[in-house]
Structure prediction request, 371 residues.
Amino acid sequence: MPGNLTSRERMRRALRGQPTDRPALAYLFLGGARHVLGHVGRRMNEAYGDPHLMAATQAAAAELFEHDSAMVPWGCLTVEAEAFGCRIEKLEDYYPRVTGRPLEEDRNLARLSDPDPSSSGRMPLVLDALSRLRQRSGDDLFIVALVVSPFLVACELRGMAKLLTDFINDPPYVESLFQRVTEGTERYLLAILRTGACDAVLFENPGVCRELMGPHHLDRFVLPYHRRLLETARREAPEVFLIEHNCSNTPYLEEILELDIDAISFAYGDVRAIGAEHGWDCHAKHTSANACLDRYCLRPRDTARAVAWVGNVDNTQVLLGASPEEVFREARACIESARGAPFVLSTGCEIPFKAPAENIRALARAARAGH
Prediction:
């Protein structure tokens, strides 16, 4: 068993299913932001507008909570949307939000900007922050770049309800919109990879779920454009891990597992399939402060490739309202149930900003307890 691994090497080995000194622990977005921002003495709007502070907050989070990974950008899902033409309001104590959508009232695609990663919106800040974080952490931290899927970017530009209506009423328009969005996002993805700073790209894609669309719309509108981004990343940087993040209640998990990805970061797994096969209510169990002691969602699956699981401690009720010991039990249940599969301990999605610091530290304590 290897000993004294760096965080970077621990994450790499865990994602490949290789032996590690202890379970790897991944950090999503800016979990526990109140504590992290307090540590660096800044507000959200200050930290998100300065590449030095964007890097510093992630370094601070690793110091405070002992995670093996860091993420840039850390939680704002509007970087791409802003570059395409959305109006953004910067908030003092939360992520920037969309206040104006270029296609909401006028569907003319000529209203969209064509993003240039070197100059559009906050894209240059992200590229600079990635490089700064790598320089700061050296060969220690495992650095993850966040890229929003074309579906979610299109939702911001058009509005989700109107876009889903377009799925039915005007499929050719949707395809033209997705083509345009994918081209711009692809340029941004290439610029991220060419910094040489990141070990992985996490694609934010909870839209791949049954709550929003049927399988025919998934196959026509979502997966083809997402596959294009994955193919671009593989060609440009084959050594970079590709991680799919889907925290929805009913993800199209089997379809995700067929993609060319190395890992899936998830909250509940395929809730319907698990319930049908095992009579197990993942959502109810994972949001119980008594902790979910059996994890059907983490059982190894019969797939052609060994896709790693990243998750899936409940990030809301347990991290926010349970005791540190209950968080510890929840995390240990994940570790024990995932034996036999490539696995990285994490939360199902972002830890709430105001989650107690001792609850967040209980995750590291569970990882230090070993395999």
